[in-house]
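[Automated response] Your request has been received and processed.

Submitted sequence:
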Amino acid sequence: MTSDQDADPFDCAVVGAGPAGASCAVWLARLGLRPVLLEADARPGGATAKSPYRNDWLATSPGATGEDLARQIARSLELSGVDLRCGARVASVGRERDVFLLSVDGQAVPIAARTVVLAGGCSPVADGFPDDPRILVGPGAQIFHHEFAGLDVAVLGGGDNGFENAAFVLEKGARRVDLYARSVRARPDFVAAVPAGSVTAGPYEVGADGLAVNGRRYDRVLVMYGFRPDLGILATPPDTDARGHPVTARDTAETSASGVYAIGEIAGRAHPCVATALGEGVVAAKAIERRLRP
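Generated structure:
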């Protein structure tokens, strides 16, 4: 089904089919509203669809990997009758009077919706590193499936992802792993898993090609500088906090832009994970129901 500004708009366009966006779309559909779920990738699940790691933190799905959860998300969307459109990368979100118009790459006619939910997550911070297959930016499947045996590896970043992936690369048989962190912020158990002699805390210098740190050359460099929210699609961005995340109302997930909601990692709320993302989807869906059915 194709919608334009002259047809009846969707009640909500949800951008991003990760746990937060999928949860929101499922609730909207089961509340009797008409959502459309737009996902840039070829399948729903967001970051979970790219994670082969076990997620033992979900009380309802012990032992499930991220890929398992993505399959469950796809099944839930199907059972709920959600209009899911994969391969639909939203290029921009504008507004005409009371209707939002979402331009999708490769689609001539924009999608019209009465409300918009931003659930597209965040992108790993690359900080100007060159596009090189030896430089791996961010965690996930690319690290899990990479061959590190016998290689010298530098890991940049002092958070959980930095230390967790340094330990993982060591387990994969890397000859040498050095972690560079301007400050150490990771959980104590992650820090303990990396030999103290492999950690350099404080300022460090990365070479122009991204493969040398403090003058030492490496076969691979893992960049774990965290994530940045993706707000570039909005013609008028909402108010943001000091980290660049949209400021949202606690009880509704609505941003400073009326009718625009933000949930999941992009919202930057406390403890971002699958469990909290699912809950944020519910909060936004119920708020939208109240808005459209006063």
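Summary generated for your ticket: The two ends are 28 Å apart (CA to CA). The CA atoms of residues 251 and 283 lie 7 Å apart.
If you did not submit this request, please reply to this message.
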